[in-house]
Amino acid sequence: MEQEWILSIIHLTSMAFLVTSFALLVSPQLFSCIRFYAIHSFLLAVITLSTAFYNHVYHLIISAVLTLVLKTIVIPQIFFRMIRQLGMRKEVETYINIPLSLLFSTLLVFISFYGVGNMKALDLLLSKESVSIAVSTLFLGMFMMTTRKKALTQVLGLLLIENGVFLMGVTTTFGMPLLVEIGIFFDVLVGAIIMGVFVFKIRGAFEGIDVDKLTMLKG
Amino acid sequence: MTLVHLLSIPLVSGFLAVISPTKKLVRLFFVLGALILAGCSWYFVFRTNAHKPVFMFSENLMMDALAAIFVLLITTVGLLSSLYAAGYLFKDGDLAIPVIKLRRYVFFFHLFLFTMLLAVLSNNLGIMWIAIEGTTLASAFLVNVDDKKSSIEAAWKYLILCTVGIALALFGIILVYYSAIAGALGEQENLLHWSLLLKKAKALDPQVMKLAFIFVLVGYGTKAGLAPFHSWLPDAHSQAPSPVSALLSGVLLSCSVFGIVRFHILTRIATGSGFSNGLLVFFGILSVAVACPFILVQADYKRLLAYSSVEHMGLAAAGIGFGGPLGIYGALLHIVNHAFTKSLLFFCSGHLLHQFQTKEIKGVRGLLKTNPFLGGIFFLGILAISGLPPFSIFVSEFSILSGGFAAKRFMACAVLLFLLVLIFAGFLRHASNMTLGTREQEPRSEKSLLMDSVLGLGIVLVFVMGFYIPAPLQSLLESASRIVQGVVS
Amino acid sequence: MSYSRFILSLAQVLLILGLAPAVSWFIKKMKAASQNRVGPTLLQVYADLGKLFRKGMVISERASWIFHGMPYVLFSVTLVAASMVPVFFEGSLLGFMGDLIVFVYLLALGKFFLALAALDTGTSFGGMGSSREMTLSSLAEPALLLALFALAYHAKTLSLEGLAAHFNRQAPFRILFFTLPALGALLIVAIAESGRIPVDNPATHLELTMIHEAMILEYSGPYLALIEWSHEIKQLIFLSLLANVFFPWGLSNAESVAGLLFSPAVYLLKIFSLAFVIGWIEILSAKLRLFRVPDLLGVAYVLAVLSLLGQLMMGRWM
Amino acid sequence: MKSLFVLQIILYILGGVAGLSFERNKTRTSVLTYLLAAAGGGVGVLYSLVALRGQNLLVLNLPGFALFGNLRLEVDPLAAFFIFVISFLSIATSIFAIGYSREFKGKSAGFLGFLYNFFILTMILVVAVRNAFYFLIFWELMSLVSYFLVVFEHEKPEARRAGILYLVMTHVGTAFISIAFLALFANSGSFSFDDFVKSAPSLSSVWKNTIFICALIGFGTKAGMIPLHIWLPEAHPQAPSHVSALMSGVMIKTAIYALLRFLFNFLGSIPSWWGSLILVLGIASTLLGILYALMEHDLKRLLAFSSIENIGIILLGIGAAMFFASSRHFPFASFALIASLYHVLNHAVFKGLLFLGAGSVLSATHTRDMESLGGLIKNMPWTAACFLVGSVAISALPPLNGFVSEWMTFIALLSGFQCEGLGIRFFSPILASLLGLAGALAAMCFVKAFGVTFLGAPRSSHSEHAQEVSPSMKIGMMILALSCFFFAAAAPFIVSRLGKLSAALIGSEVPSSYFGRGSFLLEPSGLGQFSPWFAWGVFAAVLMSLLVLGRLWLKERAIQIGPTWDCGVPNLSPRMQYSATGYSKPLRRIFSFLYQPTRRVEVEDEGHELLRTAQRFESKIRPLFEEVFYRPVAKLVFWISEKAKQIQTGHIQLYLSYIFVTLIVLLLLVRLT
Questions:
Q1: Domain range spanning residue D599?
Q2: From B328's CA, which of B352, D82, D218, D407 has a CA 20 to 30 Å away?
Q3: Bigger pLDDT: B148 vs B77
């Protein structure tokens, strides 16, 4: 009985997950971007948790909690502080305008559904669409990275990808072995921190974190 | 002694270096750590005969012949480059680097070694992933030792691109894990164990494995510098200090190739088709092709070397893709040879940079007149890297090509040969411009016996490997190539 | 080789040596006649040779042993070559020694040293002469060879004796049909080789036009005599080659005595008629520009090709 | 036997080491190295002569890489012949080098000796090795060492340029060679030559043709076959002269050796068009080679171009042999093969001699430019005499060895008379006549070379004050000069020896009585015959007697030495002589369609054109192949590279999109398969 409940929750949240990543992609404000990311991660945590209860793999709870703590609280906070310290302009500069990027991203979502959806090997999954959602999140993250100018937004895109991968992990395989899970979290955290450090370095060296300036090395 | 000891050595020495107060001590731990590590690894590998795998930590760590080769590679090149760095970075006088930075440098250097060792020694694909990600994080700081604009830029690109790649690789790993679960191969805890997966590989779902391999190929391929994912490579390699560049292109790239190979083996057995072979050959040749123009027309000699790393990784990938005893043996041998030759050349580039104070090829003229020792070694090194006998790379390249012919991939081989000739032409042009002829300006040169001896050692190694491969290494290579061929002994 | 044959072939060589000046006298005489002059008497040419032989010499101080050696080399080469061609019977003194390739290359050896000696004294004339001579003769070479090869193809042999003998066996005029072009080719080459109008003017000493004369400008006395003589011999060799290959009639095979008495007469007849032809050409035509000569030689080559083609197309035994 | 073979190798190694180990720039060192090299050559001559007989071939089987089989060295008759040529020439050059290497005082003559020894060693090994993998190694080593020799005086920019061109071209060649070998490997499953031979019948015709083409291109490049020759005239002159002698004399012949192996051992039966193709290439190389040689006034470049011509002649022989073999006229085939092998030997001798001569001139006058030479015969009589012998030999004039092999080539071509088919019957005499043209042009070329360099009046103070070279150099040249006579006289013997060899290659026993009776060389079908003995016996007799007569006669004639006649213009200066450029003017004009010469005349005068103070004349010819093919290709490659480098713009977003797009494409690929 409650299994159906949980299942429908999963379906719902993963849909919301996809929508959020769209929102993240198109939101013009840096702050809102980060907030959306927080929401995104929160939804991920929810999915994780529900999956944990749905098929009784309780170590997933740990990773759910970790997700909640790290991705919805710590990392966004770091970013907020960074923005304040760097005192950078608030809005997102992109190469292609919002409608066009919407168009592209829908295309990407389609590709991902076409590409990995209805693969008969995935039949015994509880929510088949979650794979496609994961893949599309991945694509959207990469799309974000390729079209944004600021270093920070690129990091955001990276984290988006990370989330997509993580969703994949949770929904298809009910989470990796715990050891691996922890390791992955650790890496994500360290990665984020180091990138933060480098954002500061860039700020110092190039006055501004616009990645366009980083084109001295070519040929 | 066990794998754990092996892994702990760099951590310990790195830690010691951090806490040690004086420059001398830092240097001591730096070199000593690498020395002990190398010694132990050699001892360990050749005492425990690596033909049957060694396990640790409930099979999370494993060293089979394949891993053993890479262990040797990492530790040996690590030793060489630490020796070189001991002369190169620990200079006194006006160019002296503050000790804080040196500490940081040494720490990350050893951390880097550790992560790479972990990457090749881990049987658990997840841990391998973590380790490889770790290499990126550790080496990012090594790339940017001096906070110059260019080096920050290089480090940034390196970080971003490789992290993206790694994320994709993780996706692939999850897919593998999923198909393992779907195939109900056993209890979840060790479903990521490569050795287990290898045993049960037939049961893995081919469709999913294909998908997984693609993600892994793109992901680890980014790290391995296969075209078109190589873009970070020339920047990072040219900006890093020469010992680090040596380590990066000599070993790091190979480690990621190692990762790809592990998955390639599984995929080939699972799909029972040449799918992954085809992809490897394609991307291998693509890498050589992409590297070619950049080598033909190049203004910066460190970038020149970097691109040649792209080329050689491509060759190795192609060799793996060709398969068969010749191709795979050739590819593995090629990885070894390339590691030594390329690090030698990067050491030379360190000398050059120090003597001429420029990375411009135009800036270096008449080297043979000014400094016969360096000039001679550099010239020979260039000839070696472009695959001329009697140097080692010729042997491996030739056996890769013959592997290709044995696998009936004639067009691929013809294209490869054509590209190799072009690349050779480019290298010869640059080398002849740099070394031969008469000098214009008098370069600064203070002799450092340590660094020179490293160069000498390197060229001797490259030369000797050209016509004699030590028996133990030979047998190691053979059993490794058997593993890659999927002959489960 | 039987005794009598040996004697005969020796006689042939001597005949050629003796006859050579006479032939060029004959041509001189013709020209004189055409210009209403009384030319030299026959004795005159021999007398000139003798006079030159008896004279002293003036030799450039730049001259090296090449200069001194050349006349001997030239003459001996010409002599050996001369003793390879059959004259009035099918055999020759040294015909067995080698085939027509050897013959051609012997003459080339002489020319080689001639050209060297021309450079030896370091005059601008010498250089000019030797440059032109070598150019023209090297362009004449393929025509000469190909013409001979065309004949050889017919005769299935490369030896000069063999050629003469073969064509002597054939019924007259049937052969000519094929070999006429070759005859034309060889005639042109013969003119070029013996330095006659329209290729070169033996009479002139005007620097811009002379080739052969320019080379030997520095020579005097006995050396000059040797050179002139061997030049005449060479010319005669070519004539007798033409005579015996294209008009082999009356060439005796050294068995019948009657034939032996008869054939020298026929030989003389043939030679002088050929000399008449050459003289006639010389009278009628003007000297060509240097850079027109290659065209002439080209014509010769084409003629040779034609005769070869003719034989190939019509089969060897028609 | 075997011990001698090993001994030779050891001697060369010792020589090389000696060059490095002892004090670099002392004369003693170079004397030692070159003596060792000469000794090695001597040993080589000894055992190769025995091995040429074909009984008990010597085999050395050394362990090698596991995957590629053993390093097997074997001296069968073919190898023995080439080893003989290499060793024989190397004796002379080594002795020459003892004196010549004084040139390189202070330029580490010891190192030169080291390279020199290893150069010879690699050539020997290339010829002796019996495994594709090691063949390639030695082949590349040979190129590499010779490259170092070419750039030995690398302070000269042209030397560097020549070096790059040389090594790149040979590397291209090697690529093709490797394809050929790898294809053979794919067929036979092994790298050993014996297995190649065993599995030759199982080659499909497509593969056969591919391998043939690849081998032809690869080895043709090394041999300097037109149109792959461009490196040769650049590289050979740059090396020290005793090395250029080896390069032109024997190194390019190793390519001929390998070609013979491929054609007659590895590829089984031969289609007829191969022969025709090689004939065409051969005649092209012959004519163009000598025509370009004629335009040179740099002595060593001239010699290098004439090497191209001689390779052409050799190829003519091989082509004829292949053609006859394919049409199963085995006597003719082996006769043609004998001709070409014989020419290999002869060319090695006289080209070596000429390069040594050029080296002596260079060391005496320090210039290679003929325009500033002249009159050397007075000061350097020995060198002049030797150079003259070489010139006569290379112009294929009787009675020297050059003529013998050229005669055989003529005959071999003319044997086409006997074949069926209009084509060969028509073209064989045409080819022969063209060969004749080439011979005559060669004569002109070397009249120019010898005449301008040694005769007349010195054109510069260099040549005016030149001194005769040191005894060792003289000896080196004398050896070769004498052997020019010897190899002519020994023709019947050599031909019978080569007869066995060529019969073995072609794979049909032909009685040697086909090729020679007594002192006579015969064309198998009795088309022509020639006896070198008689030829130069008679010639020498006549000449001698004439000389004696002449001396006696001239005794009582008054001979006065006077100035050269100056046609009334006072003080005839050396600059009024014909220059090398002027000498070849008529040809330049006649063959202008080929040369496309350009001339520049600068006149300085005082107001009026009649009052000339100075006049500068410059005439260039257009290097056809370079400008029509090679330079455009090189330009294209670099243009493409420049364009291709656009992908690395430095924008990280772009880099990311590469990854991105590739991933998507691959995904779709999987989906669709």
A1: 584-620
A2: D218
A3: B77
